[in-house]
Structures are given as C-alpha cells and as structure tokens.
Amino acid sequence: MAAVPPRVSRPLLPLLLLLLLLAAAGLSTCAPHDYLDALSKSILFFEGQRSGVLPPDQRLTWRGHSGLSDGYEAGVDLVGGYYDAGDNVKFGFPMAFTTTMLAWSLVEFGAMMPPAELRNALAAVRWGTAYLLKTIAHPNKVFVQVGDPLKDHNCWERPEDMDTTRTVYVVTPENPGSEVAGETAAALAAASMAFRQADPAYAELLLDNAARAFEFADTYKGAYSDNPGVKAGVCPFYCNFDGYQDELLWGAAWLRRASSNDSFLSYIQNNGKTLGAEDNINEFGWDNKHAGLNVLVSKEFLEGQVMSLESYKESADSFMCTLIPESSSSHIQYTPGGLIYKPGGSNMQHVTTIAFLLLTYADYLARTSQTVNCGNVAVGPASLRRQAKQQVDYLLGDNPMRISYMVGYGDRYPQRIHHRGSSLPSKRDHPEFIACKEGSPYFNTGRPNPNVLVGAVVGGPGEDDAYGDDRADFRKSEPTTYINAPLVGVLAYFAANPS
Questions:
Q1: Which domains, from first to last, does the chain contain?
Q2: Is 469 one of the annotated active-site residues of the chain?
Q3: Looking at 11-15, 48-52, 409-413, 477-481, which range is the least confident one?
Q4: From the candidates 418, 438, 465, 470, which is the catalytic residue?
Q5: At 30, is the pLDDT very low, low, confident or very high (cuts 50, 70, 90)?
Q6: 108, 157, 242, 478: which is the annotated catalytic residue?
Q7: Whole-angstrom Cα distance, residue 53 to residue 63?
Q8: Of 240, 246, 256, which Cα lies nearest the Cα of 279?
Q9: Angle, CA 255 vertex, CA 253 and CA 256 arms, to 5°
Q10: How would DSSP label each residue in 297-309?
Q11: Catalytic activity, per the record (predicted)?
Q12: Interior CA angle at 397 toward 393 and 403, to 5°?
C-alpha cells in the first residue's frame, strides 16, 4: 500500500513556506553546535604542537619526540614547550601569551568544564609553564626563542626530523626584553591561579617565579626586537610593534590578581599613565595587551570598588562599544557573513580573543549588576554574550562557506592546512628520514593532509568570507596556539550554557 502523505495543518504552513524560502536562498538553518565536542578538540590540538619528549598518554599518536637537543648550544636545557604554528620554531613571546590565555580560560571558565576536560586543559597549561620555568631558570637571563626561523622556513620537514640550526636567543640586563619577561610573568601568575586547587605546591612555585620574571622585566626595561642579539631571529615574525609597556602593566595586573599583593596594585596605580594605560588601544593579542588589560583590571574596580582603577573600566566599556554594531561608536570591521575582521592575516586570532573578552566582561558585569553605556544604547551582559556566540558559531560552521574552521569538527573542515607535521607522513607510516627539501612535494600536492590535527583552528576566511583550503596560503590556512588558547574558555562557557 502506498504511504499517505501527512496533512499539514494551517498554523505550520507559514513556517514551512519560510523554510523553503530560506533553503532556496541558500540560507538553510544550521543545526545546534556540539560545544563540548569542540571544546574537547580545541584542547587536543595542543598535543599536536608539543615539542620535546612526548608522554605515554599522548593522544595524537602521529606525533613523536622532537627538539631533544634544544638549548644544547647555549649549555642549557630548553627541551619542551610548543611550536607556535605550522613551523618548528619555539617563539617565546607568543608561547607565553598562549599559556596566559589557556590559564585565564581556566581561571574564568574552568569550573564549567567536565572533570576530564579540565584535566586535559591543565595538562596543556603545564606543558607551557614547564618550559617557561626553564627559560628563566638562570640568573639575569631569559631565553626567548629556539630555532633560526629563516632556516626553518626554508624547509618543509617534520619536527621529528629537524636538522636546521636550533639557535638559542636570550635577553639580558644589557640587552633586555621586557615584553617577553613581562608576558612570562603574566603566564606563570595566571597559571598559578589555574593550579591552585589541583596542585597547590606547583601553584606556589609558579607564583614565586612569576614575581622573579616581573622583577627582571621591570628592572631592565627595553624591547626585545630592539635587541641586536635577537632582532634577526624574532623579526619580522614576532617583532614587538607596540612597545613593552603594556606587558609590564599586564604582568603586574596578573600578579596582583594571583597574589592580592598591594605592591602590584600600587604599581598599576603609579605607573599606568607613564606606561600607556590611557592609550586605550582597542586590540588584544600576543603583541598588544591593552583591551585585555582593561578587562582584567576592571574586575577589581567592579567587585572591589577600588576607585583609582575606574579609568580601566571606562576603557573596557569603550572597547565593548566598538564591537556593538548598533552602537554609535562601533568601528570594528565585519565580513558580510558577520565575522570580526582585521587585515593582516591569521584573522581568527582576533575573533577568539575578542570573543573571550566579551564573555569575561559579561560575567564581571553580571556579578555586579552593571551595564555598558554606549551613548545611544545600553549594553548588558546578555548582549555581549550574543556577540561572542555569533563569532564562535561562525567559526564552527554558521558561515557563507558552510565550513567549520576547526579541523575535525563537523562534516566539512579544512583538509590542507599549512602545517608541516600534519602535511607530511608520520614516522609511523614513513620511518625513513625526510630531509629539508624532500618535504617540498608534500607541500605542493593538492591532496589532503595525511595526519588530522584535530582541533586546530586556521587563520580563516578573507574579508569577503571566502576560503580556498590552500596549504600555500598560510595567512588563511595556518593554525596557531594563540588562536586556540582563548577559544578554550569560550567553548567551556557555551558547552555549559549552549543557549
């Protein structure tokens, strides 16, 4: 017997008509996202970026031990840490920022995570802090980088096969690097808070070393990209374009929050003007801490009523207003599909850091029953959270390309990411050594990467929402640790609050 089609009741007809029109326009509604799955994968990504001796519980098993002689040429142990992106260099400045943001993710949203994912996230933080502790283990020295980037970028080879020069770059009192030392202080202080319950002794060790790193940064002031001993290695890749002053305030702010020590509060109060706290630069990332600093310090004004910090809250408000499209002071650029866009490449780093600040500030406002006055509109916590959700949903697939920009999440995601270890056959599948230039055919092939770097978030589409999945287009197809680090906190929030 043929099936009889069900009758459609009249109240449903307008809805069905709307869905048909949306489908015809190519704007079909998207399924709800599995934020917990995305969270798990965003943390797993960091295992693919590990350098050093991998542990027995390493889950991305196509990776192997690498960089086992790092530091040897300087007579120190610098084994471990993270590769920043798709290359095999260990850049200390973005690695410290990555560690800070992973730790801040746990400080604000770790309590929302399932226990297993919290353990994985703490392991990711510890992999960063274990290395950072090594970089400051020798008096009056901070080791800021391992690997000659020009020679490394001239090769396409697995980390496990590295045979390029592992040059060690160091800052000293005579040739300082306040931004790297200040960011290292921030990372260790933030991590001390993340470990306070799970490992109190380790938390105390981190806090003590954070204070020591900050003292070095503040005593011997100067930018590491002005340092003749390291400039050739760090520029143009992670050159400090915005000065070291924001990192001094950032490090002091984290030490204040982690220790409640009044000396760091005094430092922020007494040095804010001279260190540019009132510059109100609406950016946040590995090089520029202003927007993040304002949000972080605002917490103490909002919850502790420290009136001398009111200007930080005003600057944080101003930043939030630039993000709200209906605000008269909005000036952040969006793609036609709704993604925050800043020219320069690796755009997703701006998306994830800004989404993190939106959620964090929303929490601070909600706890104190406050809103943001954007002139012609009052903006509350719910509005900030909606803004953050729109960005993360776009990243996960609600975009004109209908592609997830997180590798391994969803049905469609980038297959040809700009990443050496992912694009070359693993040691397990190809045990023979692959020399510097022998990897070029793997780079040039149009085939998908053989090793899936689960959780990696690529640089993302251009200002027109277009993405070509091209390994050579590194500005769009390369993942970085500092894209993923703030995303861990964002996804933890939405996994616990999906609607």
A1: 35-55+71-412+482-496 (1.50.10.10)
A2: yes
A3: 11-15
A4: 418
A5: low
A6: 478
A7: 10
A8: 246
A9: 65
A10: HHHHHHHH--GGG
A11: Endohydrolysis of (1->4)-beta-D-glucosidic linkages in cellulose, lichenin and cereal beta-D-glucans
A12: 155
